[in-house]
Specification:
Blueprint: H1 15-20, E1 26-32, E2 35-41, H2 43-54, H3 59-69
GO molecular function: DNA binding
Organism: Luteimonas endophytica
Keywords: DNA-binding
C-alpha cells in the first residue's frame, strides 16, 4: 500500500490500512527511527493533547512533574 504526501502536507490513508486499525477520528503522531507512526486515540484524549499543546506543556514537562511528585 502506498500513500502520497501532497504539497499541502496531506496524506490519504488507504481504506485497507484504516480497516485493519481501530476506528478513530484522531491519531497521535510520533516519529520513530525516521518513520511516521500514527496511533489511534479517542476524541477525549485528542482534546486533552490539544489543550496541553495550547498551554505550551510538553512531554518533558510532564516527566519532570512526575519526578518532582515522587520525591
Amino acid at each position: 500500500m502506498l500513500a502520497k504526501l501532497t504539497s499541502k502536507n496531506r496524506i490519504t490513508l488507504p481504506k485497507a490500512a484504516v480497516a485493519q486499525a481501530d476506528a478513530a477520528e484522531y491519531f497521535a503522531v510520533t516519529v520513530e527511527q525516521g518513520r511516521i507512526v500514527l496511533t489511534p486515540v479517542r476524541a477525549q484524549q485528542a482534546e486533552a493533547r490539544d489543550k496541553l499543546e495550547q498551554l505550551g506543556i510538553e512531554e518533558q514537562d510532564v516527566e519532570d512533574a512526575i519526578a518532582w511528585a515522587r520525591r
